[in-house]
């Protein structure tokens, strides 16, 4: 456990430059290819690192600048998955998407994001975090025509993720975060095998491990779904006790402008808690005082050395100036509360 109070970080993606991909668009196609694309991705990583550092973010990331999609870009590096003949499936039990198909045993024959992680590590002296999709969310983002069991496929993905994560940790990554938005939807599966598969993905890592569960990007399908959840969003109530009993070090969730009862984070006793203090479903830039208010509320249930203010989710659909403003508000809001704590 760190003794530094209120280290800031981000939960996921940051907007890409217009010369790399179409702005304010999820999963936008690259505008370059070949070595020009590789160089442009590296330049984009440098830019988002500077943005985070200037905003006072303590644990920085690459903002997923090298990835079109937080799940399928990883799957593209695997064998056994057909991207040519996609199928339409229900994602997160709320919207339809054309997804790749598992047609044979999945396998990782080479490193996928390890070079990206090495580059990230080389570009900053701050602690760095790299995000990977979680096993359950990977299963929920494709069509299985081979395994015949979501659980079996999740375990196969967990082993592959562990191979990749071990190589990243060896490259100097300080925190590896597994993104599991599916944990807020499939509660029986979380209980039966979801947490266990997540632990397998994180097994034996020589770095901090984290899981991010959330209510998704600020897109219409997610916003409409949230409206159906009522005045209190208590899904975390079902997953937090299981994560508190797990081997995962940190749990990331959204709080700002949500209907999550803040006292639910008290269920994560013994874990570092990444409290989402920035709303990624709005173009409005929070004030530092608004960020500080979210942090103060969380401190009623989590010790300051255990609490990491962060963003609610990824910010890739936002304009870059909006995202920069939100990063600055996050850094300044955390600084306000640090001064109060003394």
Summarize the structure.
The chain has 342 residues and is an alpha/beta fold. It has one domain: TIM Barrel, CATH 3.20.20.
What can you see in these coordinates?
The structure is a single chain. The protein has helices at 34-54, 72-75, 114-122, 135-139, 150-170, 187-201, 220-227, 236-244, 288-299, 320-341; strands at residues 59-61, 79-91, 95-107, 127-133, 143-144, 175-179, 208-212, 250-254, 272-278, 307-311. It is of the alpha/beta class and 342 residues long. The chain has a single domain, classed as TIM Barrel. The protein has a 7-stranded parallel beta sheet with strand order 1-4-6-7-8-9-10. The protein is globular. The model has no long low-confidence stretch (mean pLDDT 95).
Given helix and strand content, the structural type is alpha/beta
Number of strands: 10
Order of helices and strands: HEHEEHEHEHEHEHHEEHEH
Stretches with pLDDT under 50, minimum 5 residues: none
Could you name the CATH class?
Alpha Beta
Percent range for helical residues?
25-40%
CA distance, first residue to last residue: 19 Å
Q: Could you please say which CATH topology applies here?
A: TIM Barrel
| Whole-angstrom Rg | 19 Å
How would you sum up the global shape? globular
Quote the beta fraction.
15-25%
């Amino acid at each position: 456990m760190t003794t530094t109070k209120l280290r800031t970080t981000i939960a996921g993606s940051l907007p890409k430059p217009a010369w790399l991909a179409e702005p304010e668009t999820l999963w936008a196609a690259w505008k370059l290819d070949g070595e020009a694309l590789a160089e442009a991705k590296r330049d984009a990583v440098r830019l988002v690192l500077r943005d985070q550092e200037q905003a006072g973010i303590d644990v920085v990331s690459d903002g997923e600048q090298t990835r079109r999609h937080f799940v399928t870009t990883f799957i593209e590096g695997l064998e056994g998955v057909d991207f040519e003949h996609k199928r339409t499936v229900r994602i997160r039990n709320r919207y339809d998407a054309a997804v790749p198909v598992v047609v044979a045993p999945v396998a990782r024959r080479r490193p996928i994001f390890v070079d990206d992680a090495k580059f990230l590590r080389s570009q900053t002296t701050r602690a760095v975090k790299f995000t990977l999709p979680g096993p359950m969310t990977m299963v929920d983002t494709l069509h299985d025509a081979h395994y015949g069991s979501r659980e079996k496929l999740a375990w196969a993905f967990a082993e592959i993720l562990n191979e990749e994560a071990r190589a990243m940790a060896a490259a100097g990554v300080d925190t590896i975060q597994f993104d599991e938005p599916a944990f807020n939807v499939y509660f029986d599966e979380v209980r039966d095998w979801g947490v266990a598969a997540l632990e397998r993905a994180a097994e034996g890592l020589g770095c901090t491990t984290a899981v991010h569960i959330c209510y998704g990007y600020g897109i219409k399908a997610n916003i409409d779904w949230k409206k159906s959840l009522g005045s209190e969003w208590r899904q975390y109530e079902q997953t937090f006790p299981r994560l508190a009993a797990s081997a995962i070090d940190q749990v990331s969730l959204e709080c700002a402008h949500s209907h999550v009862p803040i006292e639910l984070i008290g269920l994560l006793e013994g874990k570092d808690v990444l409290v989402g203090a920035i709303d990624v479903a709005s173009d409005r830039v929070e004030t530092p005082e608004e960020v500080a208010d979210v942090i103060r509320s969380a401190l009623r249930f989590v010790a300051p050395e255990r609490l990491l203010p962060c963003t609610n989710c990824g910010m890739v659909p936002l304009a870059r100036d909006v995202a920069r403003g939100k990063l600055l508000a996050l850094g300044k809001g955390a600084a306000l509360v640090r001064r109060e704590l003394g």
